[in-house]
Amino acid sequence: MTVVLVAGATGSLGSLIVKNLLERGATVRALVRPSSADGGTRLRDVAGHPRLSLRVGDLTDGAAALAPHLESVEVVVSAVQGGPEVIIDGQTELLRAAERAGVHRMIPSDFSINLWGYGYGVNILSDLRRTFAEAFRTSPVARTSVAIGAFPEYFLGPFHEVLDPAAGTFSIWGDGTRKIDITTIPDAAAFTAAIALDPMTAGRDVHVVGRQLSLLELRNEVEAATGRRWALVRKGSLDDLQTEIVRRQFAATNPFAYVALQYQTGMYGGSASLTDVRNADYPDVVPASVAEYLAGPGAAHFAVPESAVDRDDWPATV
Ligand SMILES: NC(=O)c1ccc[n+]([C@@H]2O[C@H](COP(=O)([O-])OP(=O)(O)OC[C@H]3O[C@@H](n4cnc5c(N)ncnc54)[C@H](OP(=O)(O)O)[C@@H]3O)[C@@H](O)[C@H]2O)c1
């Protein structure tokens, strides 16, 4: 029985990786921070599972403190989220601890577009992940990276500025015809568990995907799911997108003002597209269609946020 340690186990992706690993028969150690020492709400339904143990630790504790959690572990899966102190420094401590414990493989917290289709400086969050990938060059622990494209949970949320439920608009850069890669968080977790337990993935970037469809096809899916029209806003060409990124970089105090557009430039221009998609290697993972997602949890994207409701329009009495 494979022993897997999952860091970021209380997160939206990490908690589902834990559940999928348990379903696949693995023994799972969930690394949780002291503030979520009981596993938090996301692990509640697997609490007490006979093959799950919680290990309390923070990546900032350092390799020596983390190493005991990794004894007898074969695979580490990291689904942590954060800035360079987590993605580079924290994961490097986890990798050093894995080396001490003789771990075979580690899946770093990438779960992104194709990180290798473009250079440094194009996407600040990809740069963190590529910088950490370099730590494996001299490590006996093999890196397995999982690339899934974009989570619709984020791509259709406010962060990406594609869908605006208050305005009833669907915005695109470019002509909207290039296929983009979309994978839901539950499907990414199901693939990741399967890949974690597949020793043939050592040293590889594994590309898996829920659906590949163009922005215009995605808008059709949104219209079919809602039964209404979403006005298409053509924001400009891909060159205009590049100009907008630079404009925001000068104006912004926070990189989150432009990083979503950095993802989009790779997705819409094709440099970040997944290549050699390996879904066929994991036939028991059957990803949801975008239509199924939009009819289920994705329906939440269509709700007009409270902040956008004009209270003057509300009736005085009901
Ligand atoms: N492709 C896409 O469209 C897309 C979109 C979003 C995210 N992602 C990627 O998916 C991955 C997971 O994201 P997520 O949304 O699941 O993140 P999340 O829900 O914010 O969860 C992050 C997890 O990391 C843990 N963590 C943070 N700092 C830590 C530290 N110093 N030590 C130990 N644990 C730490 C958190 O613990 P606490 O619960 O204690 O805070 C939490 O369990 C990330 O790599 C992210 O970039 C991809």
From TrEMBL:
Signal peptide: none annotated. InterPro entries: NAD(P)-bd_dom_sf, NmrA-like, NmrA/Isoflavone_reductase-like. It comes from the Bacteria. Residues 3-230 form the NmrA-like domain. Keywords: NADP, Oxidoreductase. This is Nucleoside-diphosphate-sugar epimerase. It comes from Catenuloplanes nepalensis.
